[in-house]
Amino acid sequence: xxxxxxxxxxxxxxxxxxxxxxxxxxxxxxxxxxxxxxxxxxxxxxxxxxxxxxxxxxxxxxxxxxxxxxxxxxxxxxxxxxxxxxxxxxxxxxxxxxxxxxxxxxxxxxxxxxxxxxxxxxxxxxxxxxxxxxxxxxxxxxxxxxxxxxxxxxxxxxxxxxxxxxxxxxxxxxxxxxxxxxxxxxxxxxxxxxxxxxxxxxxxxxxxxxxxxxxxxxxxxxxxxxxxxxxxxxxxxxxxxxxxxxxxxxxxxxxxxxxxxxxxxxxxxxxxxx
Length: 274
Prior knowledge:
The chain is α/β, with parallel strands linked by helices. The chain has helices at about 5-10, 15-30, 35-40, 45-55, 80-85, 90-100, 115-125, 140-145, 170-175, 200-210, 250-260; strands at about 30-35, 60-65, 65-70, 105-110, 130-135, 150-155, 160, 165, 180-185, 190, 195-200, 215-220, 230-235, 240-245, 265. The protein folds into two domains: about 5-70, Winged helix-like DNA-binding domain superfamily/Winged helix DNA-binding domain (Arc Repressor Mutant, subunit A), CATH 1.10.10; about 80-265, Rossmann fold (3-Layer(aba) Sandwich).
């Protein structure tokens, strides 16, 4: 047994940390085996298999005989209803970190998504003075209606029922005419090799337009987004590219992103249960 495995066993990881370790191994190696994970984490084979079943239900891996591989199918998209019930602590922490970057007098764009919605809820609870918020998300706009301190622009267009937001030519053309101090976007996946990716072609075009309209860009992504790629790449100006993620990301992974010129901002666990 190597020293790393001994250290893992001596430090009793929480359930989410164990899942994050499995996903990290999968990201580095492309596949994992139950027997190896059992040895590394000091858990029974049954416990490891149960974790793999849980992660497969979240579309984060595909189980195989004796282990798991990265999920197949870059066009697969998790439903909004499913996403809004997952990683709630992590999303709240990421939203708080993003909120701290918003300054009075800013013009900002907030993309559709469940993590960005947590940021919107903070702006409703603690509105900052003299800011203008643009969005294409119905949930976001509805949440902010009636807050006198905030000016709201809704980018209309074709409705995507699965994301509760607009997209298409009308939406992108509206956004293309604006310049924002800061934009906060949600993503489907992010990887070292391919950067930001999304499974929907119209969504990729919209995100590209949003990013091109930004002076400063923040990508909001919990740890589950780091382990796969989607169908379409979204090109991001590196000098503007900052990823706000949660405490599950490892120091090694942060170094790898930094080496590509991507700055990672780590949001701490607000509950103190790390």
